[in-house]
Each structure stands twice: as C-alpha cells, then as structure tokens.
Design goal:
By secondary structure, the protein is α+β, with helices and mostly antiparallel strands. It contains three helices and four strands.
Length: 141
C-alpha cells in the first residue's frame, strides 16, 4: 500500500511540475507577445493601444509621442528580448531596441535603445508596469 501511495505522490509531483512548466512557457509567450504588440502599436501611431498595454506611461512620454505623431514623424520600433526573468505575477525584461524615425523633412534618424521593462500579470493578463529607456547611440539625428 505504501508503494502505491508513493507512486501516486510521485505522479502528482510530476504532473504539478509539468503544469508549472506549461504555465511558465505560456507566460513567456504572453510577455513576448506584449512586447511585440507595444512596439507595433507605437509604430502604427496607435498611442491609445500602447497606453492600453502600458497604462502607467508617464504623461511627458505620452506627450512626446503625440507631438511626434502630430508632426508627421514616422516611427518604427523593434525590440529583441535580451533577458526575461518572470516570477509568478511579476517580471523584469532587458530589451535591445531600434527606433527608426523618418522626420517631416524626410531625414532619417536611428536610435539604438537599451530598455529595462517591468511587467505584471493581473487577471491572467500581462501588462507593462514600468519602462526605463536608455539611448545607447544615435545616427543621422
């Protein structure tokens, strides 16, 4: 009887580990999608969409994007995730990014970015909780 109980216990631990691994993989995929959607929203001049993903976006950052879009500056933002550390319902990402700008005078500007992003999961949905961006280099600006 004790062997059966031990086998049931081992099977339950294995199932729990598989469930945790599956949830971690799903969270990782959701956070990757979040980063992609955020960059796509800004690239499409969809500030409301970006704010939906990062509701805590500071007012001065929102205004900066609004001013850029009003001035007819085309923006293309791409991110790669360098590191991702997710713990339960919170996480930290380190991103490398490229922000390409086509200015109203048709000149081009490129910023290389190094961003640190805090993410949080609430109600099963991941959102950006905070973002610190550093411009590591500029060209054509």
């Amino acid at each position: 009887a004790s062997r059966e109980a031990a086998a049931r216990e081992a099977a339950a631990r294995e199932k729990s580990a598989r469930d945790a691994a599956g949830e971690a993989a799903a969270d990782s995929a959701s956070v990757r999608r979040l980063v992609s959607q955020y960059a796509a929203a800004l690239s499409a001049e969809n500030l409301p969409g970006a704010v939906q993903l990062f509701s805590g976006m500071p007012a001065n950052v929102r205004k900066g994007y609004q001013d850029m879009f009003s001035a007819k500056t085309d923006l293309s933002l791409r991110y790669d995730i360098a590191t991702m550390d997710l713990q339960s319902n919170r996480g930290t990402l380190k991103l490398t990014g490229i922000l390409d700008l086509l200015l109203p005078d048709k000149s081009r500007c490129r910023w290389l970015l190094s961003d640190v992003v805090g993410v949080e999961k609430a109600g099963g949905v991941w959102r950006i909780a905070g973002l610190t961006s550093t411009i590591t280099s500029k060209s054509g600006c």
